[in-house]
# Entry
Amino acid sequence: MIYTDPLFLGVTPTGARTYLADKLVSLEKPFFNACAGRFSVVEVAIKAGLPPENIYASDLGLFSSIIGFLADPAKKMDDLGIRILDAVLEPKGITDELDFAAHVMLILKLNQMKQTNLRGFYLREELLSSWSRCRQTMREQLETLVQNIAGIHHEIADIWDVVPRVSQEDVTFYASVPH
Ligand SMILES: C[S@@+](CC[C@H](N)C(=O)[O-])C[C@H]1O[C@@H](n2cnc3c(N)ncnc32)[C@H](O)[C@@H]1O
# Structure
């Protein structure tokens, strides 16, 4: 069975997430999370008791935009204007936006796989040949995450635009920037 690296690398470690969540809940301010990534901090903050409507996430990447647009009640996946131009990857058997989101996530995964060595080649082949099963698994993971963070605000924004906007506001701010 296909086993690949996680789709998203660079998550804030568990201990730091728990520490952050406690602080965020006790400070009771609107929480701005730039570079939201896979929303691991948002997820743990909500679990700790921070209301989702008090959370303002942002990121520039397509991966995060898909999750954020599914979780933000004011956004629609359609607004992302995603088009799949490769006929081989044309979505089939899509029943709703979660299926489509999972399909796009898998394409991102496929494109992360190295095309310059045999391991990458075989992993790509295996993913392509088990696409429906992998898409279903991806859909289930995505659905759980989106349910956990449903109700947040999300926008596509550069951290360098968010920082000046909120720096004079009475809010909490956290970003785990790319390294
Ligand atoms: C290390 S990850 C964030 C991890 C996340 N905080 C977590 O703990 O799950 C970095 C994220 O920063 C985003 N990013 C990179 N440059 C950015 C920028 N200039 N403005 C906003 N987001 C950016 C990437 O798309 C990626 O999702």
Observations:
- The chain has seven helices and four strands.
- The helical segments are 14-27, 40-48, 62-71, 97-112, 118-129, 131-149, 159-166.
